[in-house]
Amino acid sequence: MKLVGGSRIAWIGGKPPVAEPACGFDGRKCSLPHDPVVLSAAAAVAAAAILAAALLVRHYRYEQKLASVLWRIEAKDLIFITNFNKNSIPQEVDKRRAHTTIATYRGNIVAVKRLKKKNIDVTRAIKKELKQDFIQNCGLESTLHH
Hints:
Layout: H1 36-67, E1 79-81, E2 101-105, E3 108-112, H2 124-137
Antiparallel strand pairs: 1-2, 2-3
C-alpha cells in the first residue's frame, strides 16, 4: 500500500477519528442504569431535596411575617375612653379590668398600658406572642397561615 497525494493527512481536530463512538453505534454504552435500587435512591434524594427546599421557603416566609410589624398600633389610631363610670362600660368589657386605661381601636375595646421607655427590645419570642395575639384578636386565623 502506498500513500498517494502527500505525506501528511490534515485530520479535523488534529487526530484520526476513533473506530467506534464513545457511546457505541446504538448508544448502549451510555444508557442510564435500570437498576431499581439506583432509581429509587435517586428518587428519594430528589424528594428529600424538594422537601428541604419547601421547608426552607416556608421558614423564610414565617420569619418575614414575624419580622413585620402588623401588631404595632399607632397612638393616633386609639380613641381613649376617659370619662366613664362602671355602669357605662360596654358589657363585653370585664368590670374587674375597668381600672386600666381603656381605648377603642377600629371598633374593638382594648386595654392600654403605657411604658416609660423610649426603646423596647422586642425579642423573637415576644414577636411570636404578639403575632399570635394579633391573629386571634383580629379574626385573621383563617386568612393568615403561620
